[in-house]
Structures are given as structure tokens and as C-alpha cells.
Design brief:
The protein has 306 residues and is mainly alpha-helical. Helices cover 68% and strands 9% of the residues. The chain has a 3-stranded mixed β-sheet with strand order 1-2-3. Helix 5 packs antiparallel against helix 6. The chain starts with a helix and ends in a 6-residue tail after the last helix.
């Protein structure tokens, strides 16, 4: 519910800003303002996609999707990034046309007021979305928050350009500012695309998270002999972890199951939204870690298990 509410806040704020920016761009004739309206329109489309992808990602696993629907958030983030890149290209084309034909602004004060409101609204909205995205680990919401953050910087650039135009009367600053904004937007789109495609291709979890998992496993040496074939990946906000666990060959299934529960619980406390799959294996050689009561230890004097 919190994810959906956050996505809905983004939709409402972007809708309002798009209307005001289009009105201001039409009144003033500012290409940088029009570029901001295009940027916010893309943000609105992204926010709408994030809202529906988050809702769909929360659908429980079914027979066709036994691992759940988490990756729809990554697909949404890729689509959002593509829209951002398209917006950047459209802004450049419009700015080049204005540089060629010339542009003259009217009533720049209206545009300045709209940009101030835009910066304030996007600042508080993006901070809220980042907070919820971090708590829920939602890639779709994180992408949406990054869009709004980029919008803040581009809005500040437009605001500075409008102020300079008002002070100097040099209207050519307007399309130049629009080109600068497009470069920022393009870079943001490429970064989001790179991260989202990595998740779709089952990239491993970040190194610091894998290190945390290994530390947890190493701390359970009283329960296990060793572990291997540790694999990690992410689907939406869900982390998927699987590994092979070596335990004493003589311990009961109940004890092994308890050990697995302890490890899964420890990992879940460290990392949010984890799905852990453990394959237990009996040890095949006596080590210094073998308990004294181990029957194989007593009967075989440390020989390799056959």
C-alpha cells in the first residue's frame, strides 16, 4: 500500500506541473520551458507506469510465474528510461530549431514563478519517493525518484537561464539552456537503462550485499561445515539467494532444517525481501570442525567419506 501511495503522489505532482509548464511555455514562448514541460510529461508517463508496475509486481506467484512478478518493475524502469532518452532528443531538436530561427521571450516573470514552484514541489516529492524506495527496495519507484531529481536540476538550469535573460536581454540563452538540460536528461536515461537491464539479465546482488551474506554464513561455523555455489540475483524488489550447505552426515533432518531456518532468518534480517533456497549436503571428509560425538569420526579415524 505504501508503494502504491508513493507512486500516486508522483502521478499527481507531475500532472500538476505539466499543466503549469505548458501554460507558461505557451505564454512566454520559451523553448527551455517547453523542454521542461516535455520532461515533466515524460516523468508523468513514467510515474503512471511505476504505479501500475508496482501494483502488478505485488501479485502473488501463480502457475505461469512461479517466481512471482517482481521483474515487471525492472521492465517498467527500462521503459521509463527509453522515454527519458526520447525526451532528450526531442528537446535538442526543438532547441536547434530555435537557435536557427531565433526566439524572443515575453513575460519571463511568469516562467520564473512556475520554475520556482516546480523546484520546490519536485524536491519534496523526490525526497519522499527516495525514502519509500529505499525502505521497500523498489526499482520502479527509485527510477521515478531519479526522474524527479533530474527534473530539479533541469528546472534550476531553466530558472537560471530565465533570470539571465531578464537581466541581460540575451534570448539566445534560452535554447542553449534547453540543450544543456537534454544532455542531463539523456545521461540519466542511460544510467537507469544500464541498471534495469542488468537486473533483467540476473546480475548478482551488489558486492556489499554478497559480502554481508558471506559474513552471516561464516558466523554459523558451529552449525555448518562449509558452503559453496552461492548465487544471487534480484527481481524487482525481491532478492533471490541460493547456495549449497555442507552439514554433518550423521545429524538428523530436523537439525539440518533448523540450521537452514537460522541462516535464512539471519539473512532476512540483514537484507530486505529475500527468498533463500538452501540445498543441504552431507560432509565427505572429517575436519577440525567435526564435533567429537560424530559417529563417522569415531568409526573411521578421519578417513574420507565414501
Amino acid at each position: 500500500m505504501r508503494l502504491k501511495n508513493a507512486a500516486l503522489v508522483s502521478v499527481l505532482s507531475n500532472s500538476t506541473l505539466v499543466v503549469f509548464k505548458i501554460m507558461a511555455g505557451t505564454i512566454t514562448g520559451s523553448v527551455s520551458m517547453i523542454s521542461e514541460a516535455i520532461h515533466s510529461s515524460i516523468d508523468l508517463a513514467a510515474a503512471i507506469m511505476a504505479f501500475f508496475s508496482i501494483r502488478q509486481a505485488g501479485v502473488p506467484p501463480d502457475s505461469d510465474h512461479p517466481y512471482g512478478h517482481g521483474k515487471i518493475e525492472n521492465l517498467s524502469a527500462v521503459a521509463e528510461a527509453v522515454l527519458i532518452i526520447i525526451a532528450a532528443v526531442l528537446i535538442v531538436l526543438e532547441a536547434i530549431d530555435k537557435l536557427r530561427t531565433g526566439v524572443r521571450l515575453s513575460m519571463p516573470g511568469v516562467a520564473i514563478a512556475v520554475m520556482v514552484v516546480s523546484v520546490v514541489v519536485n524536491f519534496f516529492t523526490s525526497r519522499y519517493l527516495f525514502k519509500v524506495a529505499k525502505q521497500t527496495d523498489s526499482p520502479a519507484l527509485e527510477a521515478d525518484a531519479k526522474h524527479l531529481s533530474a527534473d530539479i536540476y533541469s528546472s534550476l538550469a531553466v530558472l537560471a537561464a530565465l533570470v539571465l535573460i531578464t537581466l541581460t536581454g540575451r534570448h539566445i540563452i534560452d535554447p542553449i539552456a534547453a540543450v544543456s538540460i537534454s544532455l542531463l536528461i539523456f545521461y540519466e536515461g542511460v544510467m537507469i537503462t544500464k541498471k534495469s537491464i542488468g537486473a533483467l539479465l540476473d546480475n548478482s546482488l551488489p558486492e556489499e550485499e554478497v559480502t554481508s551474506i558471506k559474513k552471516i554464513l561464516d558466523s554459523k561455523s558451529d552449525y555448518i561445515k562449509d558452503y559453496h555455489e552461492l548465487r544471487t540475483r534480484k527481481a524487482g524488489s525481491e532478492r533471490h539467494i541460493d547456495l549449497h550447505l555442507t552439514v554433518c552426515a550423521n545429524e538428523t533432518i530436523a537439525k539440518t532444517h533448523t540450521t537452514m531456518d537460522i541462516i535464512e532468518g539471519s539473512i532476512a534480517k540483514e537484507l530486505n525481501n529475500c527468498k533463500v533456497v538452501i540445498h543441504p549436503e552431507p560432509c565427505t571428509i572429517m575436519t577440525d570442525m567435526c564435533p567429537g560425538e560424530c559417529g563417522w569420526n569415531k568409526d573411521n579415524g578421519g578417513k574420507t567419506r565414501g
